[in-house]
Specification:
mainly alpha; 4 helices; about 50% helix; about 160 residues; two-stranded antiparallel ribbon
Length: about 160
């Protein structure tokens, strides 16, 4: 057989072999490139730890040298200004205040040595108030009615009145 019909096209034996060799070259190139990529990533990971420490030291040196108010000069060097601290929410403040109050109550008025012996801090409770300042209560379950107790046959359920 000298010609083959593949996908509606007729190919000779030499054309099929040359097409397969071209595909093989592409697959080998991808494999080689992938191996080179993996080696480069491994090299980068090895260098990134020491490199990160060095870059952080350079940034600290520049901040120290230029001063804390030189944000324009630092931003010109690609150093971002420090992030602004996020304000605590009302809930976080309430919990912190409750914890502080409970801790002070648990420790009482003591000397420095006595206070240092206390290691566990009690867990505070949080009470939620409605719009009128009244505490919200959890729904309570209605008490279950006890089933009537049975009495042995022939015995009155209650003492007879005379």
């Amino acid at each position: 057989m000298t010609s083959f019909s593949i996908l509606g096209t007729t190919y000779s034996r030499a054309e099929i072999i040359s097409k397969l060799k071209a595909l093989l070259v592409i697959f080998v190139a991808v494999s080689t490139t992938h191996d080179a990529y993996r080696a480069a990533v491994a090299t980068k990971r090895a260098a990134s730890t020491s490199g990160r420490v060095f870059v952080e030291a350079v940034i600290a040196f520049l901040k120290l040298t230029l001063g804390p108010n030189a944000q324009t000069a630092l931003s010109g060097l690609g150093i971002a200004p420090p992030k602004v601290r996020k304000a605590a929410s009302a809930e976080t403040k309430a919990i912190a205040k409750a914890k502080a109050t409970v801790t002070r109550k648990a420790r009482g008025i003591m000397s420095k040595k006595q206070r240092s012996t206390i290691t566990a801090t009690p867990q505070p409770t949080l009470q939620v108030l409605d719009a009128h300042g009244q505490p919200l209560s959890a729904p309570t379950a209605s008490p279950a009615v006890a089933p009537p107790t049975s009495t042995p046959a022939g015995t009155p359920a209650s003492p007879a009145k005379t």
